[in-house]
Design brief:
The complex is a heterodimer of chains A (119) and B (113). Chain A has no helices and ten strands. Chain A has strands at 3-7, 11-12, 18-25, 35-41, 48-53, 59-61, 69-74, 79-84, 93-100, 113-117. The model of chain A has no long low-confidence stretch (mean pLDDT 96). With 113 residues, chain B is an all-beta fold. Helices cover 0% and strands 51% of the residues of chain B. Chain B has no helices and 13 strands. In chain B, strands 2, 6, 7, 8, 11, 12 and 13 form a seven-stranded mixed β-sheet that branches. Chain B has a four-stranded antiparallel β-sheet with strand order 1-3-10-9, with no helix packed on it. In chain B, strands 4-5 form a two-stranded antiparallel ribbon. Classes of the chains: A mainly beta (119), B mainly beta (113). Chains A and B meet through strand 9 of A and strand 7 and strand 12 of B.
Chain lengths: 119, 113
């Protein structure tokens, strides 16, 4: 059964780069059936899709964040990496890793990791 | 971007009663070529990540109780909980996967009256 687990620093300073890792277990990140996504949720608010990446490297980003987002896949470690540059307090959120297959509904999700942007 | 608007923001329903949540998209999320609606529903319990309930607007994910049902087409969709149970207290989100960027509704909080 596919399982996802996010990890990374819980506190990032303004203007720095937020870097998170999603470790995939129970399946291969090189699967030709799965795409890997990042979604975030500010405290007490709704969900925002950040972007999606396939093991081959093809990716889609939310235009609202595209200029600051980089996603990559590390097949040797079976993990996905999210980098978000020039962060501000508005980037404070729980960041989720989630998978989709041929159609773009998300299942499963990781438990999420809270990232706070503060000096 | 397709804007997803949910209503109400919150609702309180007695145990065993029906809960109805609406989701409206700013443009159609249906493809006439396959007659499918690109709409999913999720349940998020406090402190947990969202859980997929329904996709294709009306297909229940495996293991989801049959008191949950989805309906609608085009731009107007509904999630119905036919007989509310205590464990259904959560925030419910709709999501369109018709095109990128994928977008979610603002959420509807369901509580016990």
């Amino acid at each position: 059964q596919l399982q996802l687990q996010e990890s990374g620093p819980g506190l990032v300073k303004p203007s720095e780069t937020l870097s998170l890792t999603c470790i995939v277990s129970g399946g291969s990140i090189s699967s030709n059936t799965h795409h890997w996504n990042w979604i975030r949720q500010p405290p007490g608010k709704g969900l925002e899709w950040i972007g999606s990446i396939y093991y081959s490297g093809s990716m889609y980003y939310n235009p609202s964040l595209k200029s600051r987002v980089t996603m990559s896949v590390d097949t040797s470690k079976n993990q996905v990496v999210l980098n978000l540059s020039s962060v501000t307090a508005a980037d404070t959120a729980v960041y989720y890793c989630a998978s989709h297959q041929w159609e773009w509904w998300f299942d499963p999700w990781g438990p999420g990791t809270l990232v706070t942007v503060s000096s | 971007d397709i804007v997803m608007t949910q209503s109400p923001d919150s609702l309180a329903v007695s145990l065993g009663e029906r809960a109805t949540i609406n989701c409206k998209s700013s443009q159609s999320v249906s493809y006439s070529s396959n007659n499918k609606n690109y709409l999913a529903w999720y349940q998020q319990k406090p402190g947990q990540s969202p859980k997929l309930l329904i996709y294709w607007a009306s297909t229940r994910e495996s293991g989801v109780p049959d008191r949950f049902s989805g309906s609608g087409s085009g731009t107007d969709f509904t999630l119905t909980i036919s007989s509310l149970q205590a464990e259904d207290v959560a925030v419910y989100y709709c999501q369109q996967y018709y095109n990128v960027p994928l977008t979610f509704g603002g959420g509807t909080k369901v509580e016990i009256k």
